[in-house]
């Protein structure tokens, strides 16, 4: 079985260094460093704007996206190879990596309230407002979350899921015996959700991969929030690793 592997992206490493330089401390040097990489200083987006940054080729509802494209709560967002998009829908924010196909769902037509996410393939980091339930699905997994920050990767063989903070109810799609509830303060129990293993064995412990606390802070800032933990900023160049 091919496992999802860590991504070594020079642009992403530069982004993390800029954030670590002090973007969220309010220092002028840190904000200038981040602006050089990101183009603007992270903060709540202006009214009517959905997309914070685009790298490469991105489609929203089948049409090429620009910085002015609106993303609705029932939109389909696709990223090509070596592409990435950071966007918000209401009080929910996303960092969607390359080769990802994500469909948002809403129980409230014409609103900006996201109630579900379907990811066929790809990688996405997302944060949600407190008290709002969201259902996330992949080929392998069904996950219920509420007011959390999460990172998810999906391929045909497995789903990787990290409850960065908050509560998540996780189940293997084809195995009712494989279920787990995770209460996390800071990436406490990343998991693989599999297909085709014996009953009760389709959820397994996973390492911490492919996302950082700085990236969570970035997308939370776009909706006017901060993560519920404090991390070093002066020399922080990678994710918290405890596994």
Could you explain the architecture of this structure?
Helices cover 13% and strands 39% of the residues. With 243 residues, it is mainly β. The protein has 2 domains: 34 residues, no CATH class; 177 residues, Jelly Rolls (Sandwich). Strands 1, 2, 3, 4, 5, 6, 7, 8, 9, 10, 11, 12, 13 and 14 form a 14-stranded mixed beta sheet that branches. A hairpin with a 3-residue loop joins strand 9 and strand 10. Helix 1 runs antiparallel to helix 2. The N terminus and C terminus are likely disordered.
Give me some keywords for this one:
single chain; 243 residues; Jelly Rolls; 14-stranded mixed beta sheet; 3 helices; 13% helix
CATH class of the largest domain: Mainly Beta
This entry's quaternary arrangement is single chain
- Arithmetic mean of pLDDT: 84
Major sheet description: 14 strands, mixed
The ordered H/E elements are: HHEEEEEEEEEEEEEEH
In terms of DSSP E residues, the strand content is 35-45%
Structure class: mainly beta
Helix proportion: 10-25%
The number of distinct β-strands equals: 14
Count of spatially separate domains: 2
Query: C-alpha Rg, in Å?
Result: 17 Å
Low-pLDDT runs: 1-8, 20-39, 232-243
Distance between the termini: 21 Å
């Amino acid at each position: 079985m091919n496992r999802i592997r860590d991504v070594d992206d020079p642009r992403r490493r530069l982004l993390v260094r800029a954030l670590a330089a002090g973007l969220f401390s309010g220092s002028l040097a840190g904000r200038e460093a981040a602006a050089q990489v990101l183009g603007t200083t992270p903060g709540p987006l202006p009214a009517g704007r959905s997309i914070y940054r685009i790298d490469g080729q991105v489609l929203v509802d089948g049409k090429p996206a620009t910085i002015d494209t609106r993303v609705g709560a029932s939109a389909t967002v696709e990223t090509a190879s070596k592409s990435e998009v950071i966007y918000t829908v209401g009080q929910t924010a996303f960092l969607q990596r390359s080769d990802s196909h994500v469909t948002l769902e809403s129980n409230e037509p014409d609103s900006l309230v996201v109630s579900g996410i379907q990811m066929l393939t790809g990688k996405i980091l997302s944060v949600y407002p407190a008290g709002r339930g969201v259902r996330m699905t992949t080929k392998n997994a069904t996950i219920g979350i509420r007011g959390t920050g999460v990172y998810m990767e999906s391929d045909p063989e497995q789903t990787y899921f990290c409850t960065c903070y908050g509560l998540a109810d996780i189940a293997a799609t084809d195995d009712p015996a494989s279920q787990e509830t995770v209460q996390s303060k800071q990436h406490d129990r990343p998991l693989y959700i599999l297909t085709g293993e014996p009953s009760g064995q389709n959820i397994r412990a996973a390492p911490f991969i492919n996302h950082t606390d700085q990236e969570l802070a970035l997308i939370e800032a776009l909706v006017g929030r901060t993560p519920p933990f404090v991390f070093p900023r002066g020399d922080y160049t990678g994710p918290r690793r405890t596994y």
